[in-house]
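Example record

One chain of 88 residues, shown exactly as stored in the release files.
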Amino acid sequence: MMALFSSGRVVDIILVFVFIEAVFIAVHRGKTGRGVRLREVASGMLAGVFLLLALRCALVDERWPWIAVWLLAALIAHLSDLAGRRTR
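Predicted structure tokens for this chain:
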């Protein structure tokens, strides 16, 4: 279990589940016409993905600028999500 975390693979596994969730949302909406649109949740999911990438960098002792880049990307995606919610 320690190797799973120290190698950052735990984040890779979570990212696969996030991708599966996005595919499920898109397929479900396409087949039934019900549920949320992927576009409505994409920026929120993207913010989460960027936070996970920052976590992965921290777990594998990546240089701090990479962590900062992913955190900044998460902030931008989060602000985009908030702006999108405000207009709906």
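Notes: The chain has one domain: 2-87.
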